[in-house]
């Protein structure tokens, strides 16, 4: 199975520097780790646990269909 992961640098002062969020949009899951590599490993662990729990409860395991990611710029006036 393949799942898309979106990485986002964490700028929250309560986290040590260098941490990233790992979002798995198709499963609506988010975790974090040190660097992109750490966040990716945390995401893999979380996905495995999620799948095991779904199977143990006799629930459907979602498969990702297709993902597209984009960025948009919002004018500063909106935030001013």
Topology, element by element:
Elements: E1 6-9, E2 19-24, E3 29-34, H1 35-56
Antiparallel strand pairs: 1-2, 2-3
Total DSSP helices: 1
**3D shape:** globular
Q: For the terminal residues, how far apart are their CA atoms?
A: 44 Å
Order of helices and strands: EEEH
Taking strands numbered 1, 2, ... along the chain, how are they ordered across the largest sheet? 1-2-3
Number of beta-strand segments: 3
Write up this protein.
This protein has 80 residues and is α+β, with helices and mostly antiparallel strands. The chain has one domain (6-78). It has one helix spanning 35-56, and strands at residues 6-9, 19-24, 29-34. The chain has a three-stranded antiparallel beta sheet. A hairpin with a 4-residue loop joins strand 2 (19-24) and strand 3 (29-34). The model has no long low-confidence stretch (mean pLDDT 92).
Throw out a few tags for this protein:
80 residues, alpha+beta, 3-stranded antiparallel sheet, 1 helix, 3 strands, 28% helix
Summarize the structure.
The chain has 80 residues and is α+β, with helices and mostly antiparallel strands. Helices cover 28% and strands 20% of the residues.
